[in-house]
DNA sequence: TTGTAGGCGTTATCAT
DNA sequence: ATGATAACGCCTACAA
């Protein structure tokens, strides 16, 4: 079945004009007779004519579209970022094309492949947890495709970056835990090589150090799929629970890790916060409705999308190659809730069962 | 800054060949000298040549892309549908372009506008709650753009549709409420004109009727933005709570309505399920972790996306106009949890303090 | 086996 | 004020 939208040619033929006249009339050129113009516009409206964006793209060598690569849209943080991206993009007449990597470097690669080969004018990118090979991104960037990284950035690719100050955020959240009486705080983090992982880990370490608590390597766990798979989180937590001494708090360093940790702890019937406190990054709208309400670090995701897009459009619309790049660091807020209530001294810390 | 990918022309010039030879070599045509072929392929690889999809689209009059119009991706149901769509689309070499209406008919219109005018080969569509004017969709459809509706369908546009059996699902969920002792069940629904609203309402009515309960018009509330705005849900619920006699259960007929209802009830400090039971549609991964765990109707969202996409590709790839259309109805499952525990007879039903 | 020309829809340039 | 032509990158019928 063939779908065929009306073209300038159709209008020209019907009205006995040349395509150039029609084109000019449609663009309201001053050199067209008002009568002709009216004729053309009316007929075009009747046909519901719209210029073919593909032809336009081919001619103008730009598609007026931006690619966004995220691990998945079914993640509050990323969907909020996307809303921020769209808010700016639409304003400036750009279409947004989303590609999901689902934390797989193969899928990421495939999405990039498609987006890159001239179908988008620029790229907004958050790396998948699996991505270690940056060669393709590097090459696209070298070829001149404007790229802005957000959230999970490639540190050594010289371009604009927008991140959240994960160091500060983690520092604040872990300090909060310590101030509420928790002493044995474990951390559940994303893949170790990600920039955000390093940052968040550093904030955790600083909070411990500043309060004179020891840093135990055995209290650190990495989840290479960012908590995308439940099993990965369950086994990490189980092994943490088997540590001696057992941690009295978990700090989860990303969205999926946080909610999946809650799931595991509930499954294991571990009381929060009495037997184990829980805090972590999360942008879900539902965290305050959970049982217990979760203490979370909420990132300014929408804002992040907006800023990244503004920077990208700057790159795209700049006449000369941009040499100076900036890294914007946004502050996140810590929302304190019941999952990290001050530790009660009287509670039995090591129940005999489990 | 200008990004310019290598073209066939570049290769032809460099190798002293014609563009057609290069083109054929790249497509591994049998009529090309193996030596030439090798030469071209190697040089192309070196340049990291990829055919320009825009030029291809212009020529082949298809873009190998599908448009998806949903109200928002930050909604578990829709993001799961999208994952289903992508799973099929990628397999068949199609790119997926997502457009969010955010329950606004203007944004929906704008997204459609862009997607439709030849940049996509077909459309997967779930109406925004605000959309009453179908003329644009109707026209695109009349012009031959293949469209498949899912979830919120346009009943009188003749094409494939994929829905969930909202009648059965509602019937089962409301029956469950009744069997657990609730008698005054109010319903919170989407905009009244939506097909899914009518269906779900009918299921609710049947359950009441079958159990000999009266249908009270005063127990029905519509939220025209589908619960996208918290305030809308809060005022609907407040007015329901003011009814005499006061309802003892709320049945929420869509995702956002369900979670926002929980939010309102908690804000008003109404105990669930003792003072008010709550059940509703939701595809969130977190419903079992909420306080209380929510009884929900979970739709086969991923499956829906898959099926809709398969049907759409059938339409797109069909040689002759398709005249026979099918409506697939999928079954949803009811997950029973604590928010609808059997009603305790001994509980005070009308606390004096609110 | 390779090359030439035309066309997909549009607009800019250069006539008329 | 309007028209003819070329070009964007690609493919293919036709020519050589």
Chart the SSEs and their pairings:
The structure is a homodimer of 354-residue chains.
Chain A: H1 8-15, H2 19-26, H3 34-47, H4 53-60, E1 65-70, H5 76-91, E2 95-100, H6 105-116, E3 122-125, H7 135-143, E4 147-150, E5 161-164, H8 166-179, E6 185-189, H9 195-210, E7 220-222, H10 230-241, E8 249-252, H11 255-267, E9 277-281, E10 295-298, H12 301-317, E11 327-330, E12 333-335
Parallel strand pairs in A: 1-2, 1-3, 3-4, 4-5, 5-11, 6-7, 6-8, 8-9, 9-10
Antiparallel strand pairs in A: 10-12
The structure holds a DNA duplex (16 and 16 nucleotides).
CATH class of the largest domain in chain A: Alpha Beta
- Taking the alpha carbons of the first and last residues of chain A, their distance comes to 64 Å
Number of DSSP helical runs of chain A = 12
β-strand amount of chain A: 5-15%
Could you tell me the number of beta strands of chain A? 12
Rg result of chain A: 26 Å
Taking all residues together, what is the mean pLDDT of chain A?
Answer: 92
- Strand line-up of the largest beta sheet of chain A: 2-1-3-4-5-11
Helix-strand pattern of chain A, N to C? HHHHEHEHEHEEHEHEHEHEEHEE
Q: Can you give the helix content of chain A as a percent range? A: 40-55%
Structural class of chain A: alpha/beta
CATH superfamily of the largest domain in chain A: Response regulator
Reported by name, the CATH topology of the largest domain in chain A is Rossmann fold
Greatest chain-chain contact:
A-B, 62 and 63 residues
Number of structural domains of chain A: 3
Low-confidence stretches of chain A: 346-354
